[in-house]
# Entry
Amino acid sequence: MVAIGSDHGGFALKQEVMEHLKERGIAYEDFGCYEEAACDYPEYAHAVAHAVTEGKCEKGILICGTGIGISIAANKVPGIRAALCHDCFSAKATREHNDANVLAMGGRVVGPGLALEIVDLFLDTPFSEEERHRRRIEKIEEI
Ligand code: RB5
# Structure
């Protein structure tokens, strides 16, 4: 199960991503927003982040205008590794190296074509399981 959320700046792209997930047969839960009216991205970031840390969803996808605010907010939740990705290399690398559990994108930054390729790489790429990456990930929580 994939948790998905956006603010108004990411609403249109979120609709495209959900349609794509449906076509791929990937189950998802939409944590809002549910209309294009202006709203506050931390609310959706926190809802998706908690769905992931509580084990209700394996991964999350968050979209705001830039992807920046919503990724900053998600990364405040312990256990969340939200990666802001606007290219395919980063989407693949953050799964392999960081075991990122949330993908963040900016709906005003990327078009749907690129965004859907990023989504596929993020969902389909496994963590490398390499010791050095595991060690570095563990150190992230040592603050
Ligand atoms: C909303 O206008 C915009 O600030 C928000 O979507 C996001 O880009 C914040 O980082």
User: Anything to note?
Assistant: The beta strands are 2-6, 28-30, 59-64, 82-84, 102-106. Residues 7, 9, 41, 64-66, 68-69 surround D-ribose (CB under 6 Å). DSSP finds six helices and five strands in the chain.
